[in-house]
């Protein structure tokens, strides 16, 4: 009799578990369009009052830089993200002359990306963001850590979004939203959301450039993205090499910038990420690939802190 009761309890427990799993799956699969996803996402940040009350934010923490492919090295430093409405100032600082860190500014109208080395050159990441400034102009950089996050007021941005449904990303099911700014950009921009919480956990920016189509200079010079071409030699051809042969050798140069967000915590009625990873990949014309990663652990987030307007000065 006891054995029968035990089996009955196990059956009930199993059925309950399956029922709850089915409910969970149904809830996560209930989103069918971009408007529904964005409404749930905005609610995941906090209620309407908490969102409306937050005008400025300062998020400070540590930063770690690693070269994963194409070199080696690790640096430890500090990070700070300051935002005021659509304005943003993001900085990572490392005690190293060869790579001092990054400084990105958007003042609501113009962008600025500072030099990263003692030679007054931008890094590869800085050059990419400088040229593809939609990352800053659209308020995408830093995700929901920034008050400029575009999904808080998409109508004002006049951007277009399209719903991609559930996608498998690194083994995890995430809702996909493609983001198209009003001002045209060469970037493909995708936002990803946890189907259980609707929190924004990933942004992916990707770009492919056909080599030899212009005079875009090497990153680190402060002028743009890598390309073999110059004003004197637009195709980047070598002496004695025919245009047909050079064209056959050309490959696309690919860039992929990812922002990952996790470890969400609630303060002042707002739920925001405290762990932030930036992942930047370049596949160059030569076939060489470089991958760099920055890991930011936010330890202090302050909302509605009075900010000096000079934080957002652009030269």
Brief description of this entry?
By secondary structure, the protein is an alpha+beta fold.
**Tally of helical runs:** 7
Low-confidence stretches: 1-28, 213-242
Strand order of the largest sheet: 5-4-3-2-1-12-11-10-9-8-7-6
Rg (C-alpha, Å): 23 Å
**Main β sheet profile:** 12 strands, antiparallel
Strand content: 35-45%
Helix content: 10-25%
Average pLDDT over all residues: 83
Q: How many β-strand stretches? A: 12
- SS-based class: alpha+beta
Could you give the distance between the termini? Answer: 83 Å
Strands, helices and their partners?
Layout: H1 2-28, H2 34-45, H3 48-53, E1 56-69, E2 74-84, E3 87-93, E4 101-106, E5 111-113, H4 124-131, H5 134-137, H6 154-157, E6 160-169, E7 172-180, E8 188-193, E9 200-210, H7 243-249, E10 252-267, E11 270-283, E12 289-303
Antiparallel strand pairs: 1-2, 1-12, 2-3, 3-4, 4-5, 6-7, 7-8, 8-9, 9-10, 10-11, 11-12
Any overview of this molecule?
The protein is α+β, with helices and mostly antiparallel strands and 315 residues long. The protein has one domain: Clam (outer membrane lipoprotein receptor (LolB), chain A), CATH 2.50.20. The chain is 22% helix and 39% strand. The chain contains seven helices and twelve strands. It has helices at 2-28, 34-45, 48-53, 124-131, 134-137, 154-157, 243-249; strands at 56-69, 74-84, 87-93, 101-106, 111-113, 160-169, 172-180, 188-193, 200-210, 252-267, 270-283, 289-303. It has a twelve-stranded antiparallel β-sheet. The longest helix is centred in the N-terminal third of the chain and has 27 residues, at 2-28. The radius of gyration is 23 Å and the shape is globular. The chain starts with a helix and ends in a 12-residue tail after the last strand.
């Amino acid at each position: 009799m006891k054995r029968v009761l035990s089996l009955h309890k196990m059956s009930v427990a199993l059925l309950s578990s399956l029922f709850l799993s089915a409910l969970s799956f149904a809830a996560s699969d209930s989103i069918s369009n971009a408007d529904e996803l964005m409404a749930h996402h905005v609610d995941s940040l906090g209620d309407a009052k908490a969102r409306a009350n937050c005008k400025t934010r300062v998020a400070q923490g540590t930063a770690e830089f690693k070269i994963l492919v194409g070199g080696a090295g690790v640096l430890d430093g500090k990070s700070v993200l300051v935002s005021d409405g659509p304005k943003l100032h993001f900085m990572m600082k490392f005690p190293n002359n060869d790579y001092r860190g990054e400084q990105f500014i958007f003042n609501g109208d113009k962008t600025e990306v500072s030099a990263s080395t003692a030679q007054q050159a931008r890094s590869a990441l800085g050059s990419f963001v400088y040229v593809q400034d939609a990352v800053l102009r659209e308020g995408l950089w830093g995700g929901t850590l920034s008050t400029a996050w575009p999904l808080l007021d998409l109508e004002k941005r006049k951007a277009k979004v399209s719903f991609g449904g559930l996608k498998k990303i690194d083994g995890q099911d995430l809702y996909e939203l493609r983001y198209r700014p009003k001002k045209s950009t060469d970037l493909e921009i995708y936002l990803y959301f946890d189907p259980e919480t609707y929190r924004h956990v990933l942004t992916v920016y990707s770009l492919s450039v056909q080599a030899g189509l212009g005079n875009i200079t090497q990153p680190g010079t402060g002028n743009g993205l890598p390309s073999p071409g110059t004003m004197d030699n637009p195709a980047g051809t070598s002496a004695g090499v025919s245009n047909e042969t050079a064209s056959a050798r050309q490959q696309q140069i690919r860039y992929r910038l990812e922002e990952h967000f996790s470890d969400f915590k609630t303060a002042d009625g707002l739920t925001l990420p405290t762990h932030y990873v930036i992942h930047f990949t370049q596949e160059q014309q030569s076939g060489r690939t470089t991958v760099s990663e920055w890991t930011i652990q936010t330890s202090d987030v302050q909302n509605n802190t009075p900010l000096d307007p000079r934080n957002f000065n652009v030269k």
